[in-house]
Amino acid sequence: MAPDTARQSTRPAHLGIPSPAAGLHAGGLFANCPDLIGSPSVFARDEEIFGEGEEAEFVYKVVSGAVRTYKILSDGRRQITGFHLPGDLFGFDPGEIHRHTAEAVSDTKVLTFKRRQIERAATQKAEVACQLWDLTARTLRHAQDHMLMLGRGSALERVAAFLMAVGERLGDAGSFDLPMTRRDIADYLGLTLETVSRTISQLEGEGALLRAGARQVTLRRTRMRRLIDA
Amino acid sequence: MAPDTARQSTRPAHLGIPSPAAGLHAGGLFANCPDLIGSPSVFARDEEIFGEGEEAEFVYKVVSGAVRTYKILSDGRRQITGFHLPGDLFGFDPGEIHRHTAEAVSDTKVLTFKRRQIERAATQKAEVACQLWDLTARTLRHAQDHMLMLGRGSALERVAAFLMAVGERLGDAGSFDLPMTRRDIADYLGLTLETVSRTISQLEGEGALLRAGARQVTLRRTRMRRLIDA
DNA sequence: CGGGCGATTGAATCGCATCAAGCTATGTGG
DNA sequence: CCACATAGCTTGATGCGATTCAATCGCCCG
After folding, report:
1. What is the mean pLDDT of residues B94-115?
2. End-to-end CA distance of chain B, in Å?
3. Is the pLDDT of residue B19 over 50?
4. Within 7 A of a protein CB, which nucleotides of strand C?
5. How far apart are CA A87 and CA A38, in angstroms?
6. Residue A50, SS3?
7. Which residue of B has its CA nearest to A190?
8. Residue A7, SS3?
9. Beta bridge partners of B41
10. Nucleotides of D under 7 A from a protein CB
């Protein structure tokens, strides 16, 4: 009943593994709409795909590479709200206007779909509208899990959960490559790049992961979970 | 292009006024569905309306009072994801299961709607499905704005933005009453109740608000904005 | 081989959390 | 009607974790 038990702490504790960092695997979304075929398109590292405030003409699906979506504050602080990996959809803020900027994290191939076309399909077929609803709902769930992380997690919890989530989404076969920089990770987790770097070193020091270069990591999931659970 | 300009700082700065703390004014959502009529229901202060993990049988609309929705971590930390004020809808996580717990912040009147009924209407009428989609999208926008706050805002920015948002949603006629405790505010903003208290005192000290008792506040919006802008 | 960006590491600082009293309303029972 | 209890709020002292500032390292690419 009363919330009097709510405690706060900066100490490590179980955050639950949040849903993958942006997880919007498209499933068969457009499968049954034969006229909805995406046009392939390529973006170079750090190239803008769309900007905040622009008209939302297209919707995108990542084929290879990675994309970040973010907002910038007037003083330059940046909050990345999601990373989009192969298979993920992005750019689907309902409404006429993009509410984020999207950039390629690395060289990236995407499929582009006309938003108008999709929305028209939605107004005609309730089935399509429900799928879009479900898609937005999954994005919402991710956002809420991430809120929990940003509001309540220590640096250790945030970084560990992030690495595990990205690993899973990349189909972690033992080890994997992080597509993004430390700064990107920091701006996603609400930390500084130095803290991210230190925390990864700490995780390595405690045997929760191995590194081969800055980007390639091998997770020891059991040890990592032990670190953040207790 | 490159995100190298992203800076970080703990200093106050413009966060943009985030959308109101949960803002889901129902608009005319169920207006054109004459068979969807809510049953009135009353909950006492701190009474649970639904629990995380429960089957999502109903959807709610606040008539009077206030509701909080939150998640609890295994160690007791609580993250409130939204406050729901008169006119707001809540409990509409798509899916069969509630992903939050909802409690009355103060004595509260709500209207309850059968979720099944609404979803059935959605599968039949594309128009309804689109409205639900839009509803979820608005919740998503709020969540993303809140992420920005949690990830990047100082205590001062968070509290000031929160007060302004709540004031607006309550139709701030000069001054208004906060329905929730300092602990609730803290668990929403990712702070401790002491920090919230101190920050409000600080805002008062700098002439950004007046207090009449702990809960009633009068905002000096211009001064408050100056404080967080610069 | 050298330039440069990204990552790491160190030292000092700061903001918020934590721990710990008091304070102030509100309400209750004698 | 007042003493007392209690819940919520405020305020103070202290500590810790993350940020900030500042080198330095190391890898990748020209």
Report:
1. 94
2. 26
3. no
4. 6-11, 14-20, 25-26
5. 13
6. strand
7. B151
8. coil
9. B110
10. 8-13, 16-22, 27-28
Gap between the Cα atoms of B94 and B69, Å rounded: 15
Q: Helix, strand, or coil here: A230?
A: coil
d(CA A67, CA A65): 7
Q: A189-206: per-residue pLDDT in tens? A: 999 999 999 999 999 999
- C-alpha distance across the termini of chain A, in Å: 27
Domains of chain B by residue range: 39-142, 153-229
DSSP B22: S
- The whole-angstrom separation of Cα A86 and Cα A107 is 12
Q: In what order do the strands lie in the sheet with B108-114?
A: B39-43, B108-114, B58-64, B89-90
CA distance B43 to A2: 13
CA–CA distance, A123 with A9 (Å, rounded to integer): 47
CATH topology for B39-142 is Jelly Rolls (2.60.120)
Q: Does domain B153-229 have CATH number 1.10.10.10?
A: yes
The superfamily in CATH containing domain A39-146 is Jelly Rolls (2.60.120.10)
* Cα separation, A157 vs A13, whole angstroms: 7
A112-138 tens-digit pLDDT: 999 999 889 988 998 888 888 888 999
Burial of A169 (0-12, 13-18, 19+ CB in 10 A): buried
- Taking Cα atoms as reference points, which of A15, A59, A2 lies closest to residue A152? A15
Residues of A with Cβ-Cβ distance to B190 under 8 angstroms:
150-152
| Torsion angle of the four alpha carbons B71, B75, B76, B77, in this order, in degrees rounded to the nearest 10 | -60
